[in-house]
Design a protein that fits this description.
By secondary structure, the chain is mainly alpha-helical. Helices cover 86% and strands 0% of the residues. Helix 1 crosses helix 2, helix 2 packs antiparallel against helix 3 and helix 4 runs antiparallel to helix 5.
């Protein structure tokens, strides 16, 4: 149960940061393009890479709680795209290019199709 609270605390921080990024992008760049989403996806993925590399090379023996708080909590609340990016990188680093490509295509395409299916069903039921 303690792990859930650690992730939840980090998630609250990440979600708040995502909201602030969205409001800032809307004010600065306007509503014509999803700049905030693009920014948080790229920034979150970059920060996830830095954090995972730091854990692997500089922070041996670091607690699992820190990983849960930062990677799953803060970065997960900021953008789940960072976790997706890490999954792709791990597959690619293991040389599993076909599974990596399948994961990318299926995650993006099926997720978008699922969103349209949800919109369609919601409109029918609503």
């Amino acid at each position: 149960m303690n792990h859930v609270l650690i992730v939840a605390a980090g998630g609250a921080i990440g979600a708040a940061l995502r909201h602030l990024a969205g409001m800032t992008a809307l004010r600065v760049l306007g509503p014509g393009f999803p700049w905030a989403t693009l920014f948080v996806n790229i920034a979150g993925s970059f920060i996830m890479g830095l954090f995972v590399a730091w854990l692997a090379h500089r922070a041996s023996g670091t607690s699992n709680e820190l990983r849960l708080f930062v990677a799953t909590g803060i970065l997960g609340g900021f953008t789940t795209f960072s976790a997706f990016s890490l999954d792709v990188a791990l597959l690619a680093e293991r040389g599993e290019m076909v599974p990596a490509a399948f994961y990318i295509l299926s995650s993006v395409l099926i997720a978008i199709l699922a969103l349209f299916a949800g919109l369609w069903l919601g409109r029918i039921l609503g």
